Amino acid sequence: MSATIHKLRNFTLLILFVWLMVIMAVDLSSPAPNYSDSLPDECGVNSQNCSGFGMWYHRSDEEDAVVFSGTQEEAMESIIEWVSSRDRMDILHANETTIHAVETSFVFRFKDDLVVHTECDDGLVLVHAYSPSRIGVGDMNVNPTRLSSLISHLQEADLAGQGC
């Protein structure tokens, strides 16, 4: 094996090793929060790695809860459909009113949580959402973009049911 090929192979192995160490460090430093018994707190006032709408409004195009045009059950089905359509998003917990999912970035495996909560209020189905990055001080606008995608999906749903 020539010296150039040997150096290239060693450099490639070093890069792979460093990448694996970064992924392990990210994974160890970002354990999953447990939202199965309670809803998360609001984003910090100056937080740049968190976004939400409705009860968690922060850095989002939508300030208020999204009024869903179908039933609460249809809202939950629509949210699960949207989560399932995302390449690297998995549901950690779901019940009749709340879904906690996590989306993992492709290269460095950063984890961002997503909590979506539905409620009935005066005959309307309201959807609230919260999306924080687990580590870091910024999210490169990923969380607001994720919530905009969810809002678009909810508003485009073609459903037969009406409210609560």
From the structure above, extract its key features.
single chain; alpha+beta; six-stranded antiparallel beta sheet; 3 helices; elongated
In brief:
By secondary structure, the protein is of the alpha+beta class.
Q: Which descriptor suits the 3D outline?
A: elongated
Uncertain stretches of 5 or more adjacent residues: none
Share of residues in strands: 15-25%
Number of strands: 6
SS class? alpha+beta
Major sheet summary line: 6 strands, antiparallel
Straight-line distance between termini: 71 Å
User: Residue share in helices?
Assistant: 25-40%
Query: How are helices and strands ordered from N to C?
Result: HEEHEEEEH
Radius of gyration: 19 Å
Mean pLDDT reading? 92
Q: How many alpha or pi helices?
A: 3
Describe the overall structure:
It is built from 3 helices and 6 strands. The chain is of the alpha+beta class and 164 residues long. The longest helix has 26 residues, at 3-28. The radius of gyration is 19 Å and the shape is elongated. The relative contact order is 0.20.
What's the structural blueprint in terms of helices and strands?
Layout: H1 3-28, E1 50-53, E2 66-68, H2 72-85, E3 89-94, E4 98-104, E5 111-121, E6 124-132, H3 142-156
Antiparallel strand pairs: 1-6, 2-6, 3-4, 4-5, 5-6
